[in-house]
Amino acid sequence: MWTLASGRVKIVYPPISEEAIRESAVLEPMSRKDDNLNLVTACRLVKGKGIDIVLRALKILAARGIPFRYVIGGEGPERSFLEALVDELGLGGRVHFQGSVVGEAKWRLLRNGDVFVLPSRLDSTIPWQEGFGIAFVEAAAFGVPAVGSRSGGIPDAVVDGETGILVPEESPVDLADALTLIYREPEKRNEMGRAGRERARMQFCPTAIAARFEEISRAVRQ
Fold it and tell me: How far apart are CA 176 and CA 189, in angstroms?
């Protein structure tokens, strides 16, 4: 086990890609003809990502009369379970599995979202927890605020109350409350989107991360 003093440890986060920076310069979504809250997720469909928690939260939103559409980008071993859960919860027609999303498909997914949602959990069946969560920052670059859990490194990617909302793990009710707030307060949603976009493009672009590396390297050499 390392015994370095905390003051000697420096963290440099990974950058978002130049492609994400370039594509997010165009923010115009597709024309919308409804009042839906458009939720998006892009991830591998595994238990640890907590997509089942999102679906249970959406059941609560439906009971509150909040219109929504949820598009899930990604593939993985949980897909069959999640599709069955959609049917069980009566969410058919509102939840769409888009399959693997890369390149333009991924940017299009983010560009058309109102909120990026990913309430990851600690998965006791595998030695895994959510890392930094670059997907949250990619969404932020497109002006899309996030709702995530406080698991792993997500709090480093989402500034609670500023670029999104953090909720406890394993809580569909707290997640539903956060999504309800985002739906009912569009100005707050837009404000978080603007703050997230500025943070993503200024602090997590490759140039900014390279400058951070150089700053640390100079400090070490002195």
Answer: 15
Burial of 157-184, coded b for 16+ CB within 10 Å and e otherwise, reads bbbeeebbbbbebebbebbbbbbbebbe
DSSP calls for 165-181:
EEE-TT-HHHHHHHHHH
Q: Are 88 and 206 contacting, i.e. CB atoms less than 8 angstroms apart?
A: no
Distances, alpha carbon 18 to alpha carbons 21, 103, 126, 159, 162, in Å? 5, 12, 33, 22, 24
Secondary structure class of 109 (helix, strand, coil): helix
The fold of the 34-221 domain, in CATH, is Rossmann fold (3.40.50)
Q: Where are the domains of the chain?
A: 34-221
- Which tens digits make up the pLDDT trace of 20-54? 999 998 776 654 557 899 999 999 999 999 999 99
* pLDDT < 50 stretches in the chain: 1, 31
Q: What's the pLDDT score for residue 132? A: 80
pLDDT for 214 equals 82
The residue among 144, 150, 141, 183 whose CA lies nearest residue 164 is: 144
Q: Give the integer Cα–Cα distance in Å for 139 and 108.
A: 11
Give the span between the Cα atoms of 33 and 113, in whole angstroms: 14
CA dist 137 and 201 (Å) reads: 9
Element (H, E) at 41: strand 37-42
Q: How many CB atoms lie within 10 A of CB 141?
A: 25
- 82's enclosing H/E stretch is helix 79-89
Q: What pLDDT score does 222 carry?
A: 63
Please indicate, yes or no, whether the overall pTM of this predicted structure exceeds 0.85.
yes
